[in-house]
Amino acid sequence: MSPGASDSLEGKTPSELIDLVRQLVGEVTRLRGENEKLSHAVARLRVENQALRDEIARLKHLPPRPPHKPSGMEKATDQPERGAQGEEGEAAKRRRGPGVSKLSIDRTETLSVAAPAGSRHKGFEDIIVQDLMVKAETTRYRRERWETPDGKGLIAPLPAGIVGGCGPHLIRLVLMLHFQGQMTCERIVALLTGLGLMISKRQVVRLVAGKLESFRAEDEAVLRAGLRSAPFVTVDDTGARHAGKSCFTTHIGSDRFAAFRTGPGKSRLAFLGRLLGGAARYVINAAAIAYMRGADLPQDIIANLAGHSSLAFDSHEQWMSHLRALGIADLRVTPDPVRATSEAALWGAIEAEGLLGQAVIVSDDAGQFRVGDHALCWVHAERLVHKLVPANDKQSNAVKVARRMIWWFYRRLKAYKRAPSAEQASLLRAQFDRIFKRRTGYATLDRLLKRLLGRKNELLRVLERPQIPLNTNASENDIRAFVTKRKISGGTVSEKGRQARDAMLGLAKTCRKLKIPFFDYLGARLGIPGPNIPNLATLVSPAPS
């Protein structure tokens, strides 16, 4: 017998084989238990690692990076279900753009070539060439000066659009490069001096931050017009730096406008104040009273405010003085009466001024946005399931099945938006219940599904209002311009700089949504001959049908 023959399974008796199998089963069970412990430990360490990354980002005054990649639900559900491609799928293929066929020809030049004797002329071969000429031009304006009979001085006015020795074409280029091209002031100075201009960084800063009152007024008018006319607004916020402090920028927009507002906080009070615009206004009316009742404020506080002769206040100081006179500011109860009544009065002012109207606020479920007629973003809801870290195969399979069902339901909601009907809405509500009332045995997933089931009305708001979006992707796309600017230029220092950044980024995004070249818009506002661009607020509000 060879040395290894005693270890051969063929040589073992049935009882020895049974003992060996029992040992192997025990070893597999032990290894499986250790594997689950290690999986739980790895999941815990991932969470701790992300928490440390977020803390480092916070100390560096940077927003934390998202811990997970996008799930891909939005793009995947844009495609028809398998087997439903047909002619519709063929028609949906990307087509080439118009190319040069849409260009208007400014100048035609005929080129000749010396042909040998006996050649036959065969017409012309056209080629369209686009070019751009940028050159520095310095103009001396000699302004007549007169002294009137009454002793006053009179001087000829400068042409429109000149600011601090810079002409309107230069100002338009600087604004384009800084706000749409995302160039820093230093690089703009380097570019302009390279073109032969004598300009300093201080002059460029003045151009991008000062003398923009008309732009800021138009941006405010755009926000108010958009809130009054839009059937929905999507909202989002991101971190910002201003005057060396951490702040937050809120994006408010729809398919026709965009606005950015930056401030020190992102509470609901701050959000309501940004909806109202620059000046805070507080109004006690039916909407404010309903808000206070929904916030579970004591009835005596509501009665004191509703029964007082003063119901409207034009400043925060007046409002706080009123609360102190009624003794509300000194109360120490839950909920905080100052915060709750201030939110209610701001909401009352929004209703009184006709802002929002019948608009639905679509958000990512951040608490400050849950006011009025509210809808939830499906992409963020699905992301909660996508971020789960299962510890074993059973949990992993439960997550995959849940995500597959949510993706299927999301595709059905997209189809409903294209062809809404009462019968389809009733069917979708029943299907929603079957998906989110399931119990998988994975406790974390079950709690999450139960939580989403509790937000059914907000997730299915689209069944009542098919025109609203299913997600806040538009806000996230718009706010990327702000994030890019923050990465390139850092924060703002002066109040004028903050207002200019918010206003110009909002106007640039609004122009893009309205399909207006930002170049033409700036030219029209700076008095440069070209297309006449009306006030954007009038374009944001669609004409009545």
Give an overview of the whole structure:
This protein is an alpha/beta fold. The chain has a domain of 86 residues. Helix content is 50%, strand content 8%. β3 and β4 form a beta hairpin. The longest helix is centred in the first third of the chain and has 46 residues. The N terminus is likely disordered.
Query: Tell me, what's the shape?
Result: globular
How many strand elements? Answer: 9
Helix content: 40-55%
Share of β-strand residues:
5-15%
Q: Helix count?
A: 21
The residue-averaged pLDDT reads 88
How would you spell out the order of helices and strands?
A: HHHEEHHHHEEEHEHHEHHEEHHHHHHHHH
Question: Descriptors for this entry?
Answer:
21 helices, 9 strands, globular
Summarize the SSE layout with pairings.
Elements: H1 14-59, H2 73-78, H3 86-91, E1 145-147, E2 153-155, H4 168-180, H5 185-194, H6 201-209, H7 213-229, E3 232-242, E4 245-253, E5 258-263, H8 268-276, E6 282-283, H9 286-294, H10 299-306, E7 312-313, H11 316-325, H12 337-352, E8 360-363, E9 374-376, H13 378-386, H14 393-418, H15 422-436, H16 443-454, H17 456-459, H18 473-489, H19 495-513, H20 518-525, H21 536-540
Helix pairs in contact: 4-20, 7-19, 8-12, 9-12, 13-14, 14-15, 15-16
